Every structure is written in structure tokens, then in C-alpha cells.
């Protein structure tokens, strides 16, 4: 088989690799890794900060989870050390990029390494996109299930990790919308509890 065809088929596996965090939380029809990377790429496309290389951010977003087409989506709950996770993903990236011409092999591997080491402003911003996309997806699952607040642990895990002004603005908007939805659910419950405590009115 042609090596570029092998590469494209490997990349296609990402459409069928579910995001592990959602699987562990019993989310119905969880997104795939490629779903996650696509919206990250759109986030990179729409960034307005002129000091940031937008094209590089898009490339980093597309490449950063590429190894998962071989190793799968390793989540914190899997109890795999960071060093072991990096080793597995590095080995996978060497295999994947080994199917490409020398120039492409070097470009894709270096993009992956740049993200892993967080060695550029673009890599740091794309890491924020990674976290932002996760909590946005968590919020959407809460909406779809009609259970605001159910996936709070994903939000809690990102506290203090956002720094870029444009990302912070999106996070604020998301948190405000989510807080309103959670308050709307609590309010009827509070009224029901009050009615039960007061008992029947005078006849």
C-alpha cells in the first residue's frame, strides 16, 4: 500500500477513537478525538491576537493528538504516568511520520514536540484551546442531558489554566451561561422544598 494512503487511513482512525473522559462519565454518543481537534482548529482560525501565528496554531491543533490514532486517548483516570504517556505517543508519532517524505516527517514531528514541550506562545495558546474545547463540550453535554452541573469536575480541572485574554473572555461567557442554567434548575427545587415545609394552607 502507498505510504501516504497508509498515513491517511491512520489519521482516519481518529474519527473512531472516542474521548475517554466522556466514556468514563457515561456520556451517550461521546465525541471522537478528531471532533475535538476540529473545533480547536476553528478556535485557532478565529483568534484575533496579531502577535500570534494563527497558521501555526492551526497546525498545532491538528497535530497535537495525532498519536492517539495508535495509542488511544489516555486519560488521567487510566493511571498512566506522564512519562509513560509521552513515551508511547512519541513512539507512535515516529511510526506515523515515518510514512511521510522527509520534509513532512520533520514538520509534523516538530509540531507535535513543540506542543508537548510547550516551547512557543502558539503551543501555550493551543493548550488553552484544548482545555477550553473540553469544558465547552462538557457544557454542551450537560445541556443535551438536561443536567446542568453534572460534569463539574472537568471545569474544576481547568481552574487557573487560562491566561490569554480572548480565551478568558470565552471562558467567562461560558461560565455565566452555565451558572444561569444551574440557577434555573435549583430555583424550582427550592420552591418545591419551601412548599413541602410550609404544608397545606388554612382551610
TrEMBL record:
Parts of the chain that traverse the membrane: none
EC primary class: hydrolase
Cofactor list: Mn(2+); Mg(2+); Co(2+)
Protein name in the entry: 5'-deoxynucleotidase HDDC2
Span of domain HD: 33-135
GO molecular function, one term: 5'-deoxynucleotidase activity
EC number: 3.1.3.89
Organism: Chanos chanos
Family under the similarity heading: Belongs to the HDDC2 family.
Lineage of origin: Eukaryota, Metazoa, Chordata, Craniata, Vertebrata
Biased composition (Polar residues): 187-197
GO terms under biological process: deoxyribonucleoside monophosphate catabolic process
Amino acid at each position: 500500500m502507498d505510504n501516504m494512503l497508509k498515513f491517511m487511513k491512520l489519521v482516519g482512525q481518529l474519527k473512531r477513537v472516542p474521548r475517554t473522559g466522556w466514556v468514563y462519565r457515561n456520556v451517550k454518543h461521546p465525541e471522537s478525538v478528531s471532533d475535538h481537534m476540529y473545533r480547536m482548529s476553528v478556535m485557532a482560525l478565529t483568534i484575533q491576537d496579531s502577535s500570534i501565528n494563527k497558521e501555526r496554531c492551526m497546525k498545532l491543533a491538528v497535530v497535537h493528538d495525532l498519536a492517539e490514532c495508535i495509542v488511544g486517548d489516555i486519560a488521567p483516570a487510566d493511571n498512566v504516568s506522564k512519562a509513560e504517556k509521552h513515551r508511547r505517543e512519541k513512539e507512535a508519532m515516529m511510526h506515523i511520520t515515518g510514512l511521510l517524505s522527509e520534509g513532512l516527517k520533520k514538520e509534523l514531528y516538530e509540531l507535535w514536540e513543540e506542543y508537548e514541550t510547550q516551547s512557543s506562545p502558539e503551543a501555550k495558546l493551543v493548550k488553552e484551546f484544548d482545555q477550553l474545547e473540553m469544558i465547552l463540550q462538557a457544557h454542551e453535554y450537560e445541556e443535551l442531558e438536561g443536567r446542568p452541573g453534572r460534569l463539574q469536575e472537568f471545569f474544576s480541572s481547568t481552574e487557573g489554566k487560562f491566561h490569554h485574554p480572548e480565551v478568558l473572555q470565552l471562558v467567562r461567557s461560558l461560565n455565566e451561561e452555565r451558572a444561569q442554567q444551574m440557577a434555573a434548575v435549583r430555583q424550582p427545587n427550592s420552591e418545591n422544598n419551601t412548599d413541602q415545609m410550609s404544608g397545606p394552607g388554612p382551610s
